[in-house]
Specification:
Mean pLDDT: 92
Radius of gyration: 22 Å
Oligomer: single chain
Largest sheet: 8 strands, antiparallel
Shape: globular
Strand order of the largest sheet: 12-7-11-10-14-15-13-16
Number of strands: 16
C-alpha cells in the first residue's frame, strides 16, 4: 500500500457499504432518496430536505491500487486529492484528473469532469472498467460494458445521481513521470489560437516537441494562450504556485526583446503533483473575488486555506446570507446574476463562441480545454439499445472522432431587471446554435422540450423505468433545472 491513511482494503470498504445499506433501509418506504453529505461541487442551489439521507461516510478512500495492471479500485466518494495521493507513489495517475481537489471520482463520472489530458484520454467516465451502483430500489448492481447492466454503465455519465449512486469504481491509470515541462504560447487573435489548437490536438506536438497536456486561457482577443505540457523525468528546478506566486498570472508574457510583436513561448516547469493541482490553489482565478490575490492579504492568508475546499465554504456563506448582493447594494450597484458555466462546442466553432461571448458577456479570463471521446467504436457490436456508435454516452451525446472545446467562465454580471437568468439563457441559446452542450453542475434554464432534445431523453426514460420504477430519485430535469 502507498499510504495506510488513503488505501484501506476490501474489508473496510465493505463495512462502509454496510453502513450505506443500513441508512437506506432507515428511509421510509416511498420517501425520496438523497445523499447525507454537507459538501458539493455543484453551483446550483438545491431544495432544502431535512429528511435522513444515505450515509456515505465510509466510502471516501481508495480501496487498492494494482501497479502491474495500472488500475485502481476506488470508493465512490473518494476525492481526486486522495486518489492522486494514493497513485502517484506508484508513478501512476488517473487518465483525467479534474482541476479541483475536492471533486470526487463518483461525482466526475455521474457528472462530467475534464482536464488537459482530455484531448487524448477523453472524459473521466471513459477510464471506468466497472461500476458498483446503489440503485433507487436499494439493490447493489455491477455495471460493465459487457454485462446485463451495460445500459446503466453507458447511461450513468451525466445522470447526476438520478439513476443511482456509485459505490465502487474500477478505473484505468496511466504512467506519469515526476515532472511536467510547460510552454505558454501567446496568440494575438482567437482565430489563430483556434487553428493551432486544432493542429496540436490532432498531431500531439508543437514545434517538434511532444504535447501530453493541452489547455488555454483567453484574457482578451489580443492576448490568449495555449499551454502545452510535456511529461519529463529530467531533474531540475521547478516553480511553486502554492504560496505567493499565482499560476494563471505566470502564463502571461510580453513580446520577446527585439522581436516586435513576435512572442517566444514562455517556459516553465512543475512537479507532476503541482501540475495536476495548479488550478486549485486559486480556484483558477476566482480567488481574486475573496481578495486572496492581493499581495498584502495573501501574506496573511494561511497557506492551508489557499485551496478550493475553503473557497467553497466562502461561497456557501454568500449563498446563505447574500453577502455579495448586500455589498453591491451598499455601493449603489445592482445584484449579480451568477454566470458559472462550462460548455462544449465543436472545436472549429471555438472562435465563434469566444468572439460572441467577449462582445456580450463581460467576464474574463476564459478557460479552454480541447477534448475528444476516447471511445473508438470498438464495442460497437455489443452496445446496449440505449446508445449507439454515434452516441455511446447517450445523456451527453458528443460524437466520437470529433474534437470539442470545453470553455469555462466563472463569475457574475449585473442582473437584467425582470428577466431572471437572462445572461445564462443567452449563453444556452448560443451554445445550442453552435451545436454544443453545457455541463449541468450549475444553473440551467432550458424548457423541458429543449432539455429532452439535448440530453438523451429517450434513453434516460428507459433507464429510469428499469432502475427507478417508483421515481424515488428526482429526474435529471428536476435536478438540473428545477433544483429539486
Amino acid at each position: 500500500m502507498a499510504s495506510d491513511t488513503l488505501e484501506y482494503g476490501t474489508d473496510a470498504f465493505r463495512r462502509g457499504v454496510d453502513r450505506l445499506l443500513t441508512s437506506y433501509r432507515k428511509i421510509p418506504d416511498g420517501a425520496p432518496i438523497r445523499l447525507a453529505k454537507k459538501t458539493s461541487n455543484l453551483f446550483r442551489k438545491r431544495a432544502d430536505n431535512p429528511a435522513p439521507g444515505l450515509d456515505v461516510s465510509g466510502l471516501d478512500r481508495v480501496i487498492s491500487v494494482d501497479p502491474a495492471a495500472r488500475t485502481a479500485q476506488v470508493a465512490g466518494m473518494c476525492t481526486y486529492e486522495n486518489l492522486v495521493a494514493a497513485t502517484l507513489p506508484y508513478g501512476l495517475a488517473p487518465t483525467v484528473v479534474p482541476q479541483l481537489k475536492t471533486i470526487t471520482l463518483g461525482g466526475a463520472v455521474t457528472g462530467l469532469g475534464i482536464e488537459s489530458t482530455s484531448f487524448r484520454n477523453g472524459l473521466p467516465h471513459e477510464s471506468v472498467r466497472e461500476l458498483e451502483i446503489l440503485t433507487p430500489t436499494g439493490d447493489l448492481v455491477i455495471a460493465r460494458p459487457d454485462n446485463e447492466n451495460a445500459d446503466l454503465f453507458f447511461g450513468f455519465p451525466n445522470s447526476y445521481g438520478t439513476l443511482g449512486y456509485s459505490v465502487r469504481l474500477e478505473i484505468d491509470l496511466e504512467e506519469v513521470p515526476p515532472f511536467v515541462d510547460l510552454r505558454h504560447v501567446r496568440f494575438t487573435s482567437i482565430e489563430d489560437l483556434q487553428s493551432e489548437m486544432i493542429r496540436v490536438a490532432h498531431d500531439r506536438e508543437y514545434d517538434g516537441e511532444r504535447v501530453d497536456y493541452l489547455d488555454g486561457v483567453v484574457f482578451t482577443r489580443a492576448e490568449c494562450y495555449l499551454t502545452l505540457g510535456r511529461q519529463s523525468s529530467e531533474p531540475g528546478p521547478v516553480s511553486d504556485y502554492t504560496d505567493m506566486d499565482i499560476y494563471y498570472r505566470s502564463i502571461q508574457h510580453a513580446p520577446s526583446t527585439g522581436l516586435g510583436e513576435q512572442y517566444e513561448p514562455r517556459r516553465d516547469r512543475l512537479t507532476i503533483s503541482d501540475y495536476l493541482w495548479r488550478w486549485d490553489t486559486d480556484w483558477f482565478w476566482c480567488s481574486r473575488a475573496f481578495g486572496a490575490q492581493n499581495p498584502r492579504i495573501r501574506k496573511l492568508w494561511p497557506k492551508t486555506y489557499l485551496r478550493s475546499s475553503f473557497y467553497w465554504k466562502l461561497i456557501g456563506f454568500d449563498h446563505k446570507w447574500n453577502i455579495g448582493d448586500k455589498l453591491n447594494a451598499r455601493k449603489g450597484q445592482p445584484p449579480s446574476e451568477r454566470v458559472v458555466q462550462d460548455i462544449e462546442v465543436p472545436i472549429e466553432r471555438t472562435a465563434d463562441f469566444i468572439n460572441w461571448f467577449l462582445d456580450e458577456i463581460p467576464i474574463e479570463p476564459i478557460w479552454l480545454c480541447p477534448l475528444k471521446l476516447s471511445f473508438d467504436g470498438a464495442q460497437e457490436s455489443g452496445l446496449p439499445s440505449v446508445c449507439s456508435p454515434e452516441q455511446p454516452w447517450p445523456l451527453y451525446p458528443l460524437k466520437p472522432g470529433h474534437f470539442y472545446t470545453n470553455i469555462g467562465f466563472w463569475s457574475g454580471v449585473p442582473v437584467t431587471p425582470g428577466q431572471p437568468g437572462h445572461a445564462n439563457r443567452r449563453i444556452e441559446n448560443k451554445v445550442t446554435e453552435l451545436g454544443g452542450h453545457k455541463s449541468l453542475y450549475s444553473e440551467s434554464f432550458y424548457s423541458e422540450d429543449e432539455f429532452d432534445e439535448l440530453y438523451g431523453s429517450m434513453a434516460y426514460r428507459a433507464l429510469r423505468a428499469k432502475y427507478d420504477p417508483r421515481g424515488r430519485l428526482a429526474s435529471l430535469y428536476e435536478k438540473a433545472v428545477k433544483r429539486a
